[in-house]
Amino acid sequence: MSRLALVPLLFAALVMAQQGPVKKTPEVIKAEIETDVIRARLDLASSQRRLAALTQTLEIRKLEAEAALRAARAEAAAAPVDAEQAKLKLDAALAAAKAAVASADKDRARAELEVQARLAAAEVSVEYAKVSSVATIARLEKKVAEVASGAKVEYPKDPLIDGVLHISDRRIPFNGRVDDKLAQFVCGRIAFYNAIDSEAPIFIVIDRSPGGSVMSGYMMLQAMETSKAPVYVVVKGYAASMAAIVTTLAKRS
Known about the structure:
Elements: H1 3-19, H2 26-149, E1 160-161, E2 164-165, E3 171-174, E4 177-178, H3 180-196, E5 202-209, E6 211-212, H4 214-226, E7 231-239, H5 242-249
Parallel strand pairs: 3-5, 4-6, 5-7
Antiparallel strand pairs: 1-2
Helix pairs in contact: 3-4, 4-5
């Protein structure tokens, strides 16, 4: 730019310097002041909101920290209790397992003893059956010989001789469950032996009976009561329930 072009600019600047600063009216000044006040109030409100939000955030973080601290303390305090409870549960489970093993051993030993006892009883029963069969055959052969010779069979009226009970062939086997079939058989045999000889003793021999019907047992008791010939009840094995009642209520057992 040439020096001649700068002359107007310098002149304008000189004129403005001579005139001085531009004066503002009171209305303009008042408006500017009110604008500054409003701007300051807005800045203050914004600052207050930011302060409230920051305070709330800090309070929340404080509460969270306190809750975490309480949880950590509770967990630390509960850890020994949980460990002790786990130990007690483990000890209880171990004791229960040992008790179960001991019970199983006892049950197995008891079962083995029962099996051995049953085997022994079966062997005794077999041997007894063999001996009884031989004795029965001998008695039958003797009776057949006596009948063939025409001799009358004599039965002692008192079968208890020198403290020993002598059971004749007038015997009625009583085995198994007490029911109508067994009652009819026993009652029929009592009537049969009474028809042959109303004075010679009759023997009801119980090998094994678990009992059974009360009415069937009552039928047999009635037949025993009305029998003219004395009825003896002999238990060789065992008599339970109704069979035991028949044995107990018999006049001779």
